[in-house]
């Protein structure tokens, strides 16, 4: 009798263990349902540097499948096919599909994120207005395709120069895309500023935060470290206090960040590709997944008049991001030196806007 009772108890326990094990496995499989792929458009040949980063999860995280849409001009069609072959050969687990095309409508269809790297570069002897006219034409066509064929909530990052004004033109011809969903890349300049401070202080770049790029992605941009800090010996200290050299911060540091792109072109005979691609991933990553608590980043966004910047231009501000939305950091103290630099880069953007609109006419 005792042996029968013992057997019954063993059977009950075994059944319970099996039941709960199956329940745990079911719940685990439910929690690990693969996400729907996000469609990401990348335009232009620098896209060769960014697509493997996206496919590895650097942009949207290690658990987000993606479908890549790549757009380039007709003369680059064969090279584009080669990039598609390489993406297939790399066997990225997150990559669920590749669209490689020279057709702007096909490229824009149903995309959730658009990284606009393609543009017409200013060539030697070219007038500024000629370069602007070429880009206005390109962004007018691409904006119309996004307007009519992209997903309704599509987020757009403009990288091609003049990035701020290209973003402005894109919005002009994609009126149904929210203003807050069109941005331009100044994260590259932001990361350059962090890098210069980390080298100067011989600290890890990850310990430097809250630099700001104000204004235009051009040589008038203002890299500002008045509110930046560094973690050293377990404590957070102001960058300005640790550098202890105002002349360097007001002159060499600013000039180095402003001219870094030109210095790279001089050194490698090509424009920034790897760093631009990495910064574009950083920009979208933080925009979609959120900035770290207590940290802001720089993004070119539509001015709402904050800090006395005229509305109606795309201007780089310090922003925080949460749940796919960016917000301009408010209440930062602006000294006279900063005010002059911020106003100068705003004036350049106003002039660029007028030039771009004259090209439309």
Automatic annotation (TrEMBL):
Substrate binds at residues 122, 128, 161, 192. It catalyses: (S)-malate + NAD(+) = oxaloacetate + NADH + H(+). It comes from the Eukaryota. Residues 42-182 form the Lactate/malate dehydrogenase N-terminal domain. Residues 186-352 form the Lactate/malate dehydrogenase C-terminal domain. It is an enzyme of class 1 (oxidoreductase). Its EC number is 1.1.1.37. GO terms for molecular function: L-malate dehydrogenase (NAD+) activity. NAD(+) binds at residues 72, 135, 159-161. The active site is at residue 217. The keyword NAD applies. Keywords: NAD, Oxidoreductase, Tricarboxylic acid cycle. It holds the Pfam family Ldh_1_N. Belongs to the LDH/MDH superfamily. MDH type 2 family. NCBIfam families: MalateDH-SF1, MDH_euk_cyt, PRK05442.1. This is Malate dehydrogenase.
């Amino acid at each position: 009798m005792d042996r029968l009772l013992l057997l019954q108890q063993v059977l009950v326990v075994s059944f319970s263990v099996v039941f709960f094990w199956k329940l745990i496995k079911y719940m685990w499989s439910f929690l690990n349902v693969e996400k729907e792929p996000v469609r990401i458009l990348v335009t232009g040949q620098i896209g060769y540097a960014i697509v493997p980063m996206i496919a590895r999860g650097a942009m949207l995280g290690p658990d987000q499948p993606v479908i890549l849409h790549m757009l380039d001009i007709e003369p680059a069609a064969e090279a584009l096919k080669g990039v598609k072959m390489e993406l297939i050969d790399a066997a990225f687990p997150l990559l669920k599909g590749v669209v490689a095309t020279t057709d702007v409508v096909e490229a824009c269809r149903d995309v959730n994120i658009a990284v606009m790297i393609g543009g017409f570069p200013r060539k030697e002897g070219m007038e500024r207005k000629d370069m602007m006219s070429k880009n206005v034409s390109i962004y007018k066509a691409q904006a119309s395709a996004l307007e009519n064929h992209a997903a309704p909530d599509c987020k757009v990052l403009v990288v091609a120069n003049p990035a701020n004004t290209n973003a402005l033109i894109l919005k002009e011809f994609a009126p149904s895309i929210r203003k807050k969903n069109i941005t331009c890349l100044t994260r590259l300049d932001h990361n350059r500023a962090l890098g210069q401070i980390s080298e100067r202080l011989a600290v890890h770049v990850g310990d430097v935060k809250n630099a700001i790029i104000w204004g235009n992605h051009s040589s008038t941009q203002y890299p500002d470290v008045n509110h930046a800090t560094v973690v050293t010996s377990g404590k957070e200290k102001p960058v300005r206090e640790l550098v202890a050299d105002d002349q360097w911060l007001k002159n060499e540091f600013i000039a180095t960040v402003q001219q870094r792109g030109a210095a790279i072109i001089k050194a490698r005979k090509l424009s920034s590709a790897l760093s631009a691609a990495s910064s574009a991933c950083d920009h979208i990553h933080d925009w979609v997944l959120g900035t770290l608590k207590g940290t802001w980043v720089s993004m070119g966004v539509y001015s709402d008049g904050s800090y006395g910047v005229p509305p109606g231009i795309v201007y780089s501000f310090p922003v925080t991001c949460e749940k796919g939305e960016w917000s301009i950091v408010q209440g930062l103290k602006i000294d006279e030196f900063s005010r002059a630099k911020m106003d100068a880069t705003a004036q350049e953007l106003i002039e660029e806007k007028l030039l771009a609109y004259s090209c439309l006419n």
